[in-house]
Amino acid sequence: MKITNIIEVEVNEPSQKPMSGIDLSELASLSPEQLIKYLYRMPNLKKLSLPDAIKRSLEDAHLKVICKICPKLESLSLNGCINIKNEGIQAVGALTELKSFTLTNNDRVSDEGISVIAALENLKELDLTRCRKITAKGLKALNCLKKLEVLNLTWCSAVDDSVLEQLSDLKNLKTLFLTYCEPLESEGFKFLENHPALSYISLSGCIGIDDKALEYLSQMEHLEHLLLDNSYGFTNEGLKLLKTLTKLRTLDLSGCRQIDDTGLECLSELTELVVLDLSMVDAITDKTLEGLQKSVKLRKLDLSMCELLTGEGVKNLVELEELEILNLSGCLLLDDTVIIGIKEMKKIKLLNMSACNQVSGALLEAIDKFEHLKVLNLSGLSKLTNKDIGCAISMKDLSVLNLKGCGLLTDGVFDKIRLMKRLRHLLLEGCEGLSLDGILNLKDYCPDLQVTYDK
Predict the structure, then answer these.
(1) Fewest CB within 10 A of the end CB: N or C in the chain?
(2) In angstroms, rounded to a whole number, what is the distance separating the alpha carbons of residues 187 and 139?
(3) What is the DSSP string of 31-75?
(4) Domains in the chain: how many in total?
(5) What is the value of pTM for the model shown?
(6) How remote is the C-alpha of 406 from its chain's centroid?
């Protein structure tokens, strides 16, 4: 059994060299006692991540020993260690070189434990996701962490405007996750609008965020990544204010059904965008796509479930030659006119056309020379034939092909698929024209190919 990712070493053999990092997350079973036995060989260990089996059984006594025998730890993940309490966290306070600490899904550590963490002056990254027992008082103590660059408070129900006021003192903070911090309201963001370093903010699922919050956010000149998905308290008027964020590289508005083309006029000014997610913003039309013509740096664009978009609108994307990921799944009005917008996207690695059942095999003919394409989702494209699938043979890097629900396909398609040398995953559920014998023969011929099908 091997320890992988950070290093690779057989756990039943002593290490011949000092080890700086160890990731046990892939091990199926290992007791805390066994872990401690191995760690005695590694006094210079700097990074430790635990497997699921240990997470459920690790207790304060074990953590105390780990911190004692590995005093040079710089990164420690206690993700999902549900039995760790304040007493165990006291031992973490002795890890004076600690730069990264993760304590997630824990309902036992309270403000007392967090006060210990707040004393770790070298800490740069802190993840407290779903630590529900920590109050606003405990979170405010984090303003002592002057070197902190990354702070994750996802699902921390105590986060409110007063916490943001204290966190504004962290002048080196670059990344802040406030995902699903529902008590959070807009006024707290006035404390962050002049922050000198903050470049990434996640406000996913923050239902208290309204136009006033976006007004404050629009003043954050260093902001490069903004996640507002499933936050439905703001309107088109607030969204328009984001046009001043000219350094923005990531914008996630997925699930914000309250906005439409009017609010998304701001996109024409955000020409540095690399990632844009508008999935399930189902009120937008082709007009929004017109505003993306200048966003030539886009590499990932998600328009899934935007049911009013047409092929004419997708034509506006023809200049997005750097695009690598395009998701148009569930855009039910798309037809073959979509090909004009897609065929010039030579760098596409993932294309999702699922449920676009008006699109024909002409699409495959147009993109058959896409040499970088790795993942192609054509599920529900009911017009596809065996001949159409043959066009994918020339896609040299194709590794995942989804043909679910392509009812016109017959066993003859397997002759085409056998020639796709790098294909590793094939999805065939709902392909009524395929026989079980044909599928099994394909699996025998291509032993490295994983095939899912109706049994």
Answers:
(1) C
(2) 18
(3) -HHHHHHHHTT-TT--EEE--HHHHHH--HHHHHHHHHH-TT-SE
(4) 1
(5) 0.91
(6) 29
